[in-house]
Design goal:
Elements (H helix, E strand, L loop, with lengths): L2 H32 L6 H7 L4 H7 L3 H6 L4 H9 L7 H14 L3 H16 L1 H26 L6 H23 L5 H13 L5
Helix pairs in contact: 1-2, 1-7, 5-6, 5-8, 6-10, 7-8, 7-9, 8-9, 9-10
InterPro entries: Homeodomain-like_sf, HTH-type_TetR-like_transc_reg, HTH_TetR, MftR_C
GO molecular function: DNA-binding transcription factor activity; transcription cis-regulatory region binding
Protein name: TetR family transcriptional regulator
Length: 199
């Protein structure tokens, strides 16, 4: 794949991620004002100045607007760009952190509010677990390719599970400490994993 094609795909993915973040921002405002259960997809679409059919191109339902993002392709690209001499954990950590440093203050605030809502609405928390299972599968495929193992290798799956576990622990901590810096928390948690989880 040429550099030009990669750049175009990257731009398209970034634009899609920005649109999704905008819809999520409007949805969060409505959830604050009306409550999660009382807010409809039609109201979210109207607030975001898109049609309901456009909403459904990005999200399959109201739960998805809170648990889905389009950063996976960006994570994959950032991971694949990591130097080969880095360990798989260092490569994952750098890829995750590079995605966060590119986020605007508004996107970070939207992420904070999403996390608060996910951790307090049982249906969203359950849906997030399914989403994180998909993220774990993505990580197993990325890492297996990098280290030359199969995605179903137990060591690769355990590695991906540890990364997802770090993510879950940070989400819970962040929900309880919303004034904290999410990117810093994630970096510190991944550093602890890299150090062998000393207690």
């Amino acid at each position: 794949m040429s550099t030009d094609i990669k750049q175009k795909i990257g731009l398209r993915e970034r634009k899609k991620a920005k649109t999704m973040a905008s819809v999520q921002m409007h949805a969060l405002r409505l959830f604050r004002e009306l409550g999660y259960n009382a807010t409809t997809v039609e109201q979210i679409a109207e607030a975001a100045e898109i049609s309901p059919s456009t909403f459904f191109r990005y999200f399959s339902n109201k739960e998805d607007v809170m648990i889905t993002d389009n950063y996976d392709p960006l994570l994959i690209a950032a991971f694949e760009d990591q130097p080969p001499e880095l360990s798989p954990l260092q490569a994952v950590r750098n890829a995750i952190m590079s995605g966060m440093t590119d986020m605007s203050a508004e996107e970070m605030e939207t992420m904070r509010e999403r996390n608060q809502l996910i951790m307090t609405v049982p249906a969203l928390r359950a849906a997030t677990l399914n989403n994180l299972t998909q993220t774990m599968q993505l990580l197993t495929e990325m890492v297996a390719k990098r280290v030359g193992l199969k995605p179903d290798d137990l060591a690769v799956r355990t590695f991906a599970g540890a990364i997802v576990g770090v993510n879950i622990s940070v989400m819970f901590y962040y929900a309880e400490n919303p004034a904290a810096d999410f990117a810093k928390l994630m970096d510190e948690a991944l550093a602890k994993l890299e150090d062998g989880l000393p207690l």
